Structures are given as C-alpha cells and as structure tokens.
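Box 3.1. Reading complex inputs
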Amino acid sequence: VEPISLGLALAGVLTGYISYPRLYCLFAECCGQKRSLSREALQKDLDNKLFGQHLAKKVILNAVSGFLSNPRPKKPLTLSLHGWTGTGKNFVSKIIAENIYEGGLNSDYVHLFVATLHFPHASNITLYKARAEIWRPSWMKLGDQLQLWIRGNVSACARSIFIFDEMDKMHAGLIDAIKPFLDYYDVVDEVSYQKAIFIFLSNAGAERITDVALDFWRRGKQREEIRLKDMEHALSVSVFNNRNSGFWHSSLIDRNLIDYFVPFLPLEYKHLKMCIRVEMQARGYEIDEDIISRVAEEMTFFPKEERVFSDKGCKTVYTKLDYYLDD
Ligand SMILES: Nc1ncnc2c1ncn2[C@@H]1O[C@H](COP(=O)(O)OP(=O)(O)OP(=O)(O)O)[C@@H](O)[C@H]1O
C-alpha cells in the first residue's frame, strides 16, 4: 500500500474515531455510551447474588430500571439503604454500578465516599475539628469542596453515581452541602443533576428492622412474608428519632429528597451458608457442605436465646473460610 493511501486511510479511521462517539466508545469507557441497563440482567444478578433480601431486591430493581428508562427525570434518583452490618448494602451498590457501567465501582463515573474515611466521625468532632483546622480551614470549606467535587463529576458525566457510605456518621454540614443536588431543580449553578444517582448507606434503623424480622420469625412466619409496609413504619420511627440521624431527618427526609428507603434484613444461618458456598465456588474449590456448616457455625448469632441472626451478616465468613481451606 502506498504511504499516501495508507495515510489517508488512517486519517479516515482517526476522524471516524474522534467524530463518532459510538466508535470511540467501543474502545474506551464513555459516560453517555454506558451499556444500556437491562432490567432482566439486573434482576438475574440480584436473584443469583443477593441472598435473603426480597424487599431490597424488589425496590432496587423497580427504582433503578424505572429511573434509567425515564429520558427526563425530574430529580436525581436517591436511594437510602438501611440495615445491619454485612447484610449486603455495599454489595448491592456494587451490583447496581456493574449493571450501569462496565467498570462497576472502578468506573470513572462511579464515586464512593466513605464518611469516616474521607471526613471525620461525628462522635470525634471536636478532636477532628482541631485537626481539620490545621489542614482545612473549616467545615464550611469541606462542604464547599464536596460540592465542587460533585459538580465537577456531574459536569463530566450527567449519569454519575455517588455512593455515600456510613451516612449516619456524616457531619450535618456535609449533608447540607449535598442537599441542593438532590432537589427538583432543572439546573443548579449551570449543571443539571437530574440524571445522577445518589445511594446512601447506613446502619440507621437496623434495630427496628431486626425487631420486625424477629417478630415474624417468632410468630412462625416466613421472612418473605414481610412486606415493605411492615418496615416503613419501623424505619421512619427509628431513622427519624435516632439521635445520631436527627440531622438526616431534618435535612433530607423532611424535604422528601429521598425517593426510596430500602431495608436490609439481618441474615440467618442458611444465608451465611449461601455466602460461603458462593465464595468456595469463586475460589475454585469443590463444594464441601461439611466445611460450609463448620464455618457458618463459627459465626455468632443473636438474640442470645434464639440465635437467629448473624451479628456480622456475611461480612467475616470469608476470613473464617481461609482457616478451613488451609487444612
Ligand atoms: N445479602 C447478601 N447476599 C449475598 N452476599 C452478601 C449479602 N450480604 C453480604 N454479603 C457478602 O458480604 C460482604 C460484605 O457485605 P457488605 O459490605 O455489602 O455489607 P454492608 O451491609 O454494606 O455492611 P456495613 O453496614 O458494615 O457496611 C459482601 O461483599 C458480600 O460478599
């Protein structure tokens, strides 16, 4: 091939590459060219991977697929996931992210913000305040930075996903900083946030969720019989009245900025076994029911007398599995 023809061909390809986003997006991750969410794929993922959470599955499937299929949402999607530790709140956020962006949590358009990691713990406020004053001038400034960070990310990609972990430990000033983005505004400071997704994770309300689940268990009812309605009351009472989540209440809940409260039920012995089984498979081991039972039995359960729910959910089963797999 002559150099001139080759040059022309290459230039043609490059022009196509640059001027046709679709072509470019075959090779690189693109905001607007995300793989379109398939309701079936999300459902399959939730059914196969998330155990013991029939309420969360249903709400998340409907909320996420409904929001993404709406070309003109009036506000960003805001989900608030509540429940005991290790019950799948982070895990489900990961599933949502993976169903929207190829890179999942590693995507440039998915942002995880951990209150206690990125900013101080509420109970240590005075301690951290002193520290914050050294490296950052004031809480106000932190709020400004958070706003700039959100604004920058949404300007780059309207369909950005923000996951705020440990929301119940987040400083009130920072929650105030997020508030304007969650509302029914067309644009805030020249940027539209209506296509963004905000997911808040917290343990607020976990005790009340557990009370309801325990009550069903004691009455010999299936946990799958628990309806969202049974949880709504328990959640609103505890989240609204919880001393630590009071600011939450006043700033976000009062103004109806949260679209869905999603309860995560405490996990039982049989769910732990399911988590362990999946992990054994993922590590390429043959399924050994004896090991699975031994690992699950090592976990601690509450309440003391009945020992129904795992106090760490599925969170630490994997490290316990290491011990048995080394045998
Ligand atoms: N319901 C579940 N179904 C399947 N796996 C689960 C479930 N819950 C937890 N797991 C497993 O346990 C791990 C830890 O759970 P995860 O981080 O989602 O808990 P969490 O609810 O976010 O807890 P925390 O409140 O402590 O942050 C997950 O990565 C997942 O592998």
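In summary: The chain has a mean pLDDT of 83.
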